[in-house]
Design goal:
It is built from five helices and six strands; from the N terminus they run H-H-E-H-E-E-E-E-E-H-H. By secondary structure, the protein is α+β, with helices and mostly antiparallel strands. It has two domains: about 25 residues; about 120 residues, no CATH class. The chain has a six-stranded mixed β-sheet with strand order 1-6-5-4-3-2. Helix 4 packs across helix 5.
Amino acid sequence: MRNHTSVSQIVSLLAISLSLALSDVPAFAAEHIHSLIAKYVSWGVDEYELYGLTRDDIAKRYKGVLELDPGGDVVHFAGLRKPCLGQPSFVVTFADGKIIKVKRLFIDGAGCKIWGPLLTSKRDALRFSVDGLKEMEARSPKDEARLKEAQRLLAGGK
């Protein structure tokens, strides 16, 4: 009886392995399964704050907070040279030397990429922040201030 159970388990595992091998989905496609558009998470810097900035602006305005990979398109939190496991970053697109698109990226402890939406305008980025901050059950005083600022800017305030 004991050998029968072991043989049965082995046959089941072989059947599962064969079906995965023949399917279009790799057995360990964690990156594809977990590469998703995530909801807003407060990181202390929001996408709308990066719009229109140059490489020099990032270095001056966010000294000690954010860094841009030299010659790259990834803005990460200070002390990191590239996105690391468990670290948030922003993937940016420059045109005429200024940031015109922003997409947040978080690589979790398993190496899965969790993407935020591609925000192609400051207005879209402000909406993303306002909606996300409003949905938070508990906001810190800094998040509350960020929400008010983003709402003011979205309403056309200077």
